[in-house]
Amino acid sequence: MPESAHAGPFANQVMSIGDLAERTGLAVSALRFYETKGLVTPARNRGGQRRYLRSDIRRLSFVQVAQQLGFSIDEIRKALATLPEGRTPTQKDWEKISRNFRMHLDERINRMTRLRDYLDGCIGCGCLSMKKCALVNPKDGLKKFGPGARSVMGDKLR
User: What band does 68 get if pLDDT is binned at 50, 70 and 90?
Assistant: First the structure.
């Protein structure tokens, strides 16, 4: 973000890296890391010091929550790239991201629910019988869907 982006009406909305660290609860080193990953883009003043917009507080809060939900830095960066630079994102801007993340979260919730239900059955049963087990994969038929625990991922033999 060019320094000029912090001029004019945005001049009173800039903060130092220390102020941003204090407001977000993130270490200064974490803010520098997020900068290298393209999650925030501070301007530099004439002395070379980073200057952040107040809207970066929300961006970084989103980063923290998204990471806790298991999203990768790359997924988060792609989502944040859809937000406008130089102004605080509006509710509509965040709703676009939310719709996309909601879809991915719903998929993860469904996958985890299936895994939980399979584990409850297998651990609770204790039979160790491939003839009865819900995870059975006759003749390796699920391999056509790819590697991994395909039944837990939702793939089914038809």
Answer: very high
**Nearest of 61, 62, 154, 146 to residue 108 by alpha carbon:** 154
**Domain match, 41 and 2 both:** yes
Number of separate domains in the chain: 2
pTM > 0.70: yes or no: no
- Residues in Cβ contact with 101 at an 8 Å cutoff, skipping those fewer than 6 apart: 66, 69, 71, 79
Please tell me the predicted confidence (pLDDT) of residue 135. Answer: 56
3-state secondary structure of 34: helix
What sign does the dihedral 121-123-124-127 (CA atoms) show? positive
The Cα-based distances of 97 to 4, 34, 40 in angstroms read: 27, 19, 16
